[in-house]
Structure formats: structure tokens, C-alpha cells
Amino acid sequence: MTTPTSATSALPSRTFTNGSVDEDAIPGEDTSEVTKLFSERLQAWKHAIAYLEDYITATEKVNSTHGKEYEKVLKTVSSPLKEGHHFDQSLGGIAGVFENVRSNTQGISNAHFDTAKQLKGSVLPLFERLHTEIKNKSKELTKGAGKGSKAVDKARIVTQKHIELLGSHTAAFESHGGKMTATEDPYVLQRGVMHRLNRQIQEENNNRQDLISVQNSFAQFEAHIIQTVQHGLGQFMQVMSTMQEQKKAMYGDMVGKSQAVPLDFEWNGFIQRNSGILIDPSAPTRSVTNVHFPNQDHKSTQPLIAGSLERKGKIMRSYDTNYYVVTPSKFLHEFKTDDDFAKDPVPEVSLYLPDCIVGGCNGQKFNIKGKDVSKGKVGNTFSMNHEFQFKAHTPAAANQWWEIIRQAAGSVTNELPESSVPTSPVTSKTSPGGSMSNTSPVAESKQPAPLQTQNIEAKDTVASPTPLSAAPASGVEGKPGQY
């Protein structure tokens, strides 16, 4: 018996793009193509084993009648193999084994009852069990890799719909000048595409690994099939060894042909004939970083500024750090994180800046008064105006954020947000009557000036920053240009 060699060392064929080449978000290949091919191959093996079962059964019947109807045995193998294109038609393969069986069966003319009894009780069950194993393998393929292919198709449909949604709203951004709702913001939709694309690629890679496992297991399973066939025909030879010398020689020839088939002979021929369909396990897996899709780099998807800011809570009054971004659509979005893959990046808070009032920038802090429009049209109708208090990590960063927000805001005031009050001596403050009165910084810190929203000026007529000499004393020295 030949020694099996690795059936996966010469795997073909269809290679994926390497890691440096752009890939389509929705590949064009049929995800179930490999599964269908293996399912059809299992059918071919099942029919081949069915041929052998029929052959042994017919042999047993013919032997019980002393060879009078031995022509029936020949008829069971006279037809070509079903799905015969799956087998190598050259000498030395399964097709050659069946051809050899046909020629030797023609010369068998006598049979005995005892031989028929042994064939029915010991040889036939080997092939029946093998037939059952092939059926179970077919069910395993359908329930395993078949479901994975359906999951990939479903994920690709979801991704394609979101890409089309992004395309429609980027077109609307161009035609409407960027006026749209928060949920229609191309920046948010683009991040949604990345989220769904990541899930799709995970399904694709999982299905790919499943198919590679199935592909590798098929090599071993087919070796097992051929080994079982060889073993069954070997048993068949032992049963028939008591017959006439001529019959023994004929059946020995059939067994010799089957044992001469290398365990990987049919498999290697199969992968060579289907090199354009089977998967190459050495090809790299897909990565989101290498995938490009329409409007991915559209100017409406690129933030004007993005980073972490602190925002004072409405209840606890403590600052929480979140990820913020100002988009070309003039939205200020708040996200829990900048990770597009962990969860769907839907904004926690969205402020449409043209409808907001922006106060002055004081050190690291600045305030915005407006309505959270992140809940859609219905939520926006019942939403209330709130004052959002922000704090950057440095005064320079705060001024950078404030300047970009100011340019997009509908109105700007010179009111400064409350700032921390250092423990310094009492400073003087001019009283309404013109006299100087001493006020402690502690007393001032308890009464921060609220953001004024009455009688505000338009953005293009914003009053110049209050000079240092006229700025209200808050216990902290003012700096020129600090809003």
C-alpha cells in the first residue's frame, strides 16, 4: 500500500490581493461556490461507493445461484461513474479501478452459496458504513460551511446598503451646501460603514478559515475512503480465495489495481483541475486598513478638528472626558471613543453650531448654548436648549477648538465661563457708583457670570475681546486675547 503524502502541500490557486493593494469592500466572488463544489464531490464519492455496494450485493446474489445470472454483476458497473469528471480518467486512478473490475467480472462464471453468505455478512457492511460516513460528511458541510457562507452574504448586504446611504448623503452635502441632520452627517455614516465593514470582514475571514479546515479535512477523508475501499476489496479477495484459481487471479487483479492507487492521486488531480476555485491557505486574510470604498475620503467625512475634551455633567457637575469632533457639516459631535469597531459610532450628543450660541474662551474653558440634535427629527422637536461647558487640556488647545467652533456658530458673545479662583489677596472692583469696593475671590467664585444669550450680536459683528483693564475681576489675571 502506498504511503500517503500531504494533500495540502500543492493547494492551488485562487489568490487574494496582497496587503498593499486596495480591495473592494464587497468582493464579487460567490461565497458558496467552494461549498457547492465540495458538496458535489461528496455526491461523486457517495455514488462511487454505491457502485461498490451494488457490486458486492450483486456478486452475493450471483454466487447464490452458481453464476447463472452473473451478467447482472457486470451491469452494476457498466455505466460510467456519476460525476465522473471529478475522477482522473488516466490509468492508476479510481476510474481505472472500475474499468479493471468490469474486465475481470466478464470472466467470472461460477459462484458458490457459502461465498455469497460471507460477502453479505462481512464485506458489504464495510461499504455501507463508508456510505453512511459520506452522507454524514455532507450534512456536516451543509450545517457548517454552508451557514458561514450565508452569514457572509448577509453581512455584505448590510455593508452595501450603508455604503449606498453614504453615497446619497455625500451627494446631498454637495448639492445642499452641507445642511442636513446629525444622523445624515457623512462623517457619521462613513464611520458606520467602517463598523459594518469590519463585521463583514470578520464573517468573511471566519468563513474562510472554516472552508480551509473543510478543505484540509477533505484530503484526509478521501484518503480514508480509498483506504476503506482497499480494505473492503481486500476482504472481498479473501472470501473469494476459496474459489477456483482463475477467479482468485481475477479478483486479485482488481484488488491490486485499487491498492495501486496512491492515497493522494485523486486529490492532487482534483485540485489541479479546480485550481481556479479552491482557496490558497497561504494567501493573506483581508484587513479593513486595505479596503477602500466610494466616498471614503470625501471632504465632508474629514473632521475640521477632533480630539478629547472634558464636559461638565448636568447632575454630578464633574468633568468627564469624551471624544469630540467638528465636521464640515457644522456639527459638534460627542462620542464615547474614537474606536469605529467596538460599537456602532453613533454620537452621544450632537450640536448644530449655526443654531448655537458660543461664549468667550477663558483659559482652558469655553461654553456653548444650544440644542442636542442627536436623537433625530422627533427627538429634536422636544429637545431643550442647554448650556454645555467644555474644558480642553491646555489653553492653546481650548483656543484652537473655540476658534473653529466660533467660525461655524450662529452667534458669539463675549461672556466668559467661570474659571478656577486662586487663593490670592482681596482684589478691588469698581462699584456701580464708581467707588472701589473690596471683594474676596471666594465670594466671586460663588457667583459666576452666566452665559448671556439676550441681545447678542451676529457672528459677523462679534464684539472685540474685552480689554484687560475692563475685564471683570475674578481672582485671576486676564490675558490679552483670552475670551
Automatic annotation (TrEMBL):
Alphabetized UniProt keyword annotations: Phosphoprotein
Annotated region described as Disordered, given as residue ranges: 1-28, 413-483
Keyword Phosphoprotein attached: yes
Top-rank taxon, per record: Eukaryota
Span of the signal peptide: none
InterPro entries per the UniProt record, alphabetical: AH/BAR_dom_sf, BAR_4, PH-like_dom_sf, PH_domain, SLM1/RGC1-like_PH, Slm1_PH
Start-end of Low complexity biased regions: 1-15, 419-435, 463-474
Domain PH: 303-412
Name this polypeptide is given: PH domain-containing protein
